[in-house]
C-alpha cells in the first residue's frame, strides 16, 4: 500500500483493506477518513470493517462518503473542517485516492495559489488540472464546459462495456470510442462462485484494466456525476464534460450491503461471507473447508439480482463438499429465499430439487434477511403474511452466505435515463433508450426482464454494437435481443445443470440434447463452466469475437 503525502498532516491513498492496518499504524497515521461510499465496488470492504480493524490499532476512523464525480461545495468544507479538527497525521482514502486529493485541493483553493495545488497533487500522482476552473473559482463549481468529444461514449468497463467496445471495433476499426470507468481492475465475476467452492484461485478472476481494454479505445479514468442527454453530454468528476454522438450505458448495479442491519460490521468475520465480493469468496471456501458441524444458512434477496442462481450455487457446492468429506449429516443446511420458487424457469426445478433432497436442505420461501448479529451469530428474517402484517424469525448459525439486495447505481437512479424503479429504460429488443434515441444500454443496469448474467451481456453486446452503427448510418437493419440468459447451476463438484432461456422463460439450449441436456446435471456442462467459458470470456467476448452470439437482424 502506497501512502501519497500532500501535507505534513495529510496523505491520501487508494482503497485500504483490513490487512493494511499494521502498515498504516507503523507509518504514523492516527486517524483515517473514508471518502468512498459502501457498495461502490465488488472488491471493496465496508467502512464498518475498516473502522473495527482501525480501532484495534488505536486509529480513529471517520466516514465522509462522497459519490464519485459528485463533490459539492459543502463536501470539501466538511473535509477541511474534519482534517483541521483531527490535526494528527491523517490518511484519507477512496477508490483511487482521487476524490480525497480533490477534496484537499478544493479546500485549499481560497488560500493557496493554483500552481502550488497542482504541483503538490502531481507529485503525489494525482492530476487535478481538470479542476482548474473550479480551483480558480475558489473551490465553487463553475459553469460546465466541454473538455472532450467522441463519436461513441461507453459508461462502464465491465463485461458489457468492454464486449460492446470490442464488437464495435470489430465492425469498424476507425470508430472514435471512449470508455469511462475509474476502476484499475477488471473482474471475471462468474468465477467467484468457483472461488467460493475451492475450484478457482481468486487471482485468476482479475486482470488489470489496461490489459483488457480494446486497442484504440480512449480510457477516461473518472467517475460519472450526471447525464445531460438533451445536450448529448456526460458530466464527470471535476465538472468535466464529455460529448457524444451515441452513448452506451452499462455501469452494472450496486450491491446494497447497508440494507441489512448489522451486515457491514460483520462481513468477512464471525462466519458471515458472500461470493458476491472478490475479497470474500476465499473466506467462503475457508468456512466450508473448516466446518465440521453446526448450521449453515444461505440467503437470497428479492429480485432483480445479479445471477439469480449464484445463491444456490454456493449452497450446492458447500453441501457437496460436506457430503464428500462425510460431514453433511452433522450440518444443518437451510436456505432463506425472498422469492416464492426455487428457480424462475420451472423446467430446471426438478433437477435442482433432486439435489436439495440429496443434501437434505431445508427450503424456506418468502423470507428476507433483515438483520445480522455477527458476534452472537444470529440472523433475523422477515416474511410478509397474507393479512399485510410481518413476522420475524431468528436463526442461529455457524456460517451464513449472504446475498445483498441490489439496485441501480445512484448516479443512474437519479438521472433522466432511469425509469420509475431506477433502472435504465430501454426497448427490450433493440436495447435503445425509449426516450433518448442517441442512448443505448445493456448489462445489469437495464430494465428489460431478462436475467442479469454475463451470458446475457455477451448476447446483448453485438446487438447494441450493430444498432449503434445502424443509427449512425453505418449498418443496415436492426438487431434484436431475445432475452437470452444462461445460468450454469453448479449442483455438485463436477456436475452442472445448464439453464438457458429467453424472455418469458422459453428454453434456449445452445447444444443438442444428446450432447448436453440442460434439464439434467452434466459433466460436460461442468467442463464448459470450468475450462471453456473463462477462455471464451477473456479471449473472445472481450475481443469482439462473437462465438454463438451473432445478432439476429430483423429489419
What's the structural blueprint in terms of helices and strands?
Blueprint: E1 4-5, E2 10-13, H1 21-26, E3 31-34, H2 47-56, E4 60-63, H3 73-86, E5 90-93, H4 98-107, H5 114-123, H6 132-136, E6 145-155, H7 159-171, E7 177-180, E8 185-187, H8 192-196, E9 206-208, H9 209-212, E10 218-220, E11 224-228, E12 233-236, E13 240-249, E14 254-255, H10 263-266, E15 272-273, H11 281-290, E16 294-300, H12 310-324, E17 331-337, H13 349-358, E18 362-365, E19 367-373, E20 378-384, E21 390-396, E22 399-401, E23 406-407, H14 410-413, E24 439-441, H15 454-471, E25 479-480, E26 485-492, E27 495-501, H16 523-539, E28 552-553
Parallel strand pairs: 2-5, 3-4, 3-5, 6-7, 6-13, 7-10, 13-24, 15-22, 16-17, 16-22, 17-18
Antiparallel strand pairs: 1-2, 8-9, 11-12, 12-13, 14-23, 19-20, 20-21, 25-28, 26-27
Helix pairs in contact: 3-4, 7-15
Domain Beta-lactamase hydrolase-like protein phosphatase-like: 3-110
Keywords: FAD, Flavoprotein, Oxidoreductase, Quinone, Transit peptide
Organism: Trinickia soli
Please summarize what this structure is:
With 555 residues, the chain is an alpha/beta fold.
Can you tell me about this structure?
The chain is of the alpha/beta class and 555 residues long. It folds into 3 domains: 4-136, Protein-Tyrosine Phosphatase, Chain A (Alpha-Beta Complex); 147-253 and 408-553, FAD/NAD(P)-binding domain; 255-406, FAD/NAD(P)-binding domain. Helices cover 28% and strands 24% of the residues. The protein contains 16 helices and 28 strands. Strands 6, 7, 10, 11, 12, 13 and 24 form a 7-stranded mixed sheet that branches. Strands 1-2-5-3-4 form a 5-stranded mixed sheet, sandwiched between helices. Helix 3 crosses helix 4 (98-107) and helix 7 packs across helix 15 (454-471). The longest helix has 18 residues, at 454-471. The chain is globular, with a radius of gyration of 24 Å. The termini are far apart. 50% of the residues are buried. The mean pLDDT is 93. GO terms for molecular function: FAD binding; hydrolase activity; quinone binding; sulfide:quinone oxidoreductase activity. Keywords: FAD, Flavoprotein, Oxidoreductase, Quinone, Transit peptide.
Amino acid at each position: 500500500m502506497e501512502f501519497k503525502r500532500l501535507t505534513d498532516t495529510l496523505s491520501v491513498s487508494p482503497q485500504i483493506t483490513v490487512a493494511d492496518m499494521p502498515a498504516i499504524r507503523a507509518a504514523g497515521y492516527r486517524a483515517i477518513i473514508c471518502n468512498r461510499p459502501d457498495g461502490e465496488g465488488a472488491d471493496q470492504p465496508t467502512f464498518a470493517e475498516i473502522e473495527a480493524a482501525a480501532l484495534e490499532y488505536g486509529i480513529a476512523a471517520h466516514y465522509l462518503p462522497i459519490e464519485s464525480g459528485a463533490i459539492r461545495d459543502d463536501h470539501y468544507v466538511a473535509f477541511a473542517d474534519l482534517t483541521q479538527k483531527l490535526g494528527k497525521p491523517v490518511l484519507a482514502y477512496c477508490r483511487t485516492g482521487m476524490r480525497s486529493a480533490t477534496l484537499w485541493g478544493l479546500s485549499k483553493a481560497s488560500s493557496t495559489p493554483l500552481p502550488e495545488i497542482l504541483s503538490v497533487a502531481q507529485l503525489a500522482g494525482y492530476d487535478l488540472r481538470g479542476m482548474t476552473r473550479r480551483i480558480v473559482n475558489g473551490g465553487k463549481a463553475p459553469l460546465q464546459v466541454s473538455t472532450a468529444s467522441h463519436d461513441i461514449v461507453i459508461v462502464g468497463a465491465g463485461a458489457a462495456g468492454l464486449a460492446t467496445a470490442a464488437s464495435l471495433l470489430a465492425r469498424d476499426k476507425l470508430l472514435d470510442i471512449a470508455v469511462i470507468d475509474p476502476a484499475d481492475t477488471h473482474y471475471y465475476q462468474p468465477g467467484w462462485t468457483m472461488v467460493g467452492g475451492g475450484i478457482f484461485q481468486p487471482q485468476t478472476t482479475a486482470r488489470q484494466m489496461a490489459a483488457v481494454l480494446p486497442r484504440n479505445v480512449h480510457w477516461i479514468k473518472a467517475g460519472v456525476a450526471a447525464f445531460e442527454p438533451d445536450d448529448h453530454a456526460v458530466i464527470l468528476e471535476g465538472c468535466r464534460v464529455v460529448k457524444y454522438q451515441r452513448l452506451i450505458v452499462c455501469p452494472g448495479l450496486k450491491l446494497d450491503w447497508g440494507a441489512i442491519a448489522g451486515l457491514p460490521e460483520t462481513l468477512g468475520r464471525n462466519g458471515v461471507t458472500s461470493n458476491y465480493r472478490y475479497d470474500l469468496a476465499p473466506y467462503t471456501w475457508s468456512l466450508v473447508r473448516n466446518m465440521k458441524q453446526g448450521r449453515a444458512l444461505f440467503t437470497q434477496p428479492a429480485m432483480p439480482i445479479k445471477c439469480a442462481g449464484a445463491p444456490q450455487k454456493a449452497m450446492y457446492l458447500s453441501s457437496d463438499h460436506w457430503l464428500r468429506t462425510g460431514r453433511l449429516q452433522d450440518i444443518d443446511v437451510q436456505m432463506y429465499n425472498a422469492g416464492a420458487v426455487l428457480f424462475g424457469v420451472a423446467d430446471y426445478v426438478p433437477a435442482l430439487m433432486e439435489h436439495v433432497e440429496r443434501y437434505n436442505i431445508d427450503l424456506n420461501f418468502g423470507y428476507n434477511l433483515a438483520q445480522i448479529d455477527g458476534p452472537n451469530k444470529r440472523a433475523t428474517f422477515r416474511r410478509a403474511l397474507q393479512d399485510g402484517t410481518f413476522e420475524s424469525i431468528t436463526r442461529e448459525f455457524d456460517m451464513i452466505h449472504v446475498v445483498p439486495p441490489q439496485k441501480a447505481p445512484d448516479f443512474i437512479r437519479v438521472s433522466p435515463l432511469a425509469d420509475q424503479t431506477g433502472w435504465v429504460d430501454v426497448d427490450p429488443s433493440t436495447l435503445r433508450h425509449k426516450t433518448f434515441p442517441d442512448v443505448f444500454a445493456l448489462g445489469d443496469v437495464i430494465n428489460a426482464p431478462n436475467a442479469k448474467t454475463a451470458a446475457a451481456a455477451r448476447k446483448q453486446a453485438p446487438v447494441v454494437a450493430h444498432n449503434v452503427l445502424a443509427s449512425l448510418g453505418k449498418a443496415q437493419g436492426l438487431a434484436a435481443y431475445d432475452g437470452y440468459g444462461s445460468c450454469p447451476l453448479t449442483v455438485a463438484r463436477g456436475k452442472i445443470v445448464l439453464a438457458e432461456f429467453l424472455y418469458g422463460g422459453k428454453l434456449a439450449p445452445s447444444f443438442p440434447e444428446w450432447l448436453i441436456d440442460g434439464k439434467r446435471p452434466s459433466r460436460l456442462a461442468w467442463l464448459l463452466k470450468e475450462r471453456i467459458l473463462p477462455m471464451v470470456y477473456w479471449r473472445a467476448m472481450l475481443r469482439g469475437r462473437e462465438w454463438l452470439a451473432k445478432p439476429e437482424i430483423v429489419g
